[in-house]
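To whoever picks this up:

The nightly regression suite flagged VOC family protein as changed. Nothing in the input moved, so I suspect the structure step. Input below, exactly as stored in the fixture:
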Amino acid sequence: MARGLDHLVVAVNDLERAAAAYAALGFTVTPENRHPWGTANRLVQLDGFFIELLSVADPELIDEPAEGIFSFGAFNRDFLKKREGASMLVLESEDPESDRSDFLNADLEVFAPFSFERTANLADGTTAQVAFDLTFLKDPLAPEIGFFTCRNRYPEHFWKAAFQAHENGARSVAAVSLLAEDPAGHRAFLSGFTGVSETRETHLGLELETPRGMVAVYNPAAYRTVFGNEAADSLQGEIPQIAALQIACPGLEEKKVVPASALFGLTLVLSPVE
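Regenerated output under the current build:
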């Protein structure tokens, strides 16, 4: 079963500054929420996809990883010791057990199941309980990127029309772009992860069209061709990495590229929709 893009985790040192930067670009940003393991987030909700701006709020609450057990908090804490930026790529899930079976059948490295609940702070000042089931897995060729699927158990409490209305017209995710020296080398993992068997390999790299948005992998030269010199020159950290996010904005007159150097390590592309 093919899985669409669910969200992107963007690790930042200063959550309020990051939220203000996204708001200045015309996005509606949710109030702050807290995880029980010491991280905090603010979200940008689109049509079935969201950006999770994430910071470490209480390091003492973070659990360390163990054999076969993934620690979301520790992974992002350690990511932030190196740089800010998109730390994790997340796909939607309808059935965590089915996801796990698919991943194991594809010979992917899977961690122990993980579920949690938290309180969501809503725009009107009220709260609601939300809960998620996560299936973490690892691409040995991309150790700096976290991957997991996410089943939202109470979508009616999570998705809110007020959070999905943006001044810049942002509506939906178009693509997430990864950067790697050898894009084709990530085909097996990404095909198993997304459930998309048909991939496109071009002179620019690798593309997988999911039910919600595309996953693309470019080499450095192709990335410069696609996103321009300013975006390429602003890249930080080791590769492979999640380098860019493209969002479809109906009504936008021309494409806007915000380089990683101006937006906490992630290049953001706002694209018109014909």
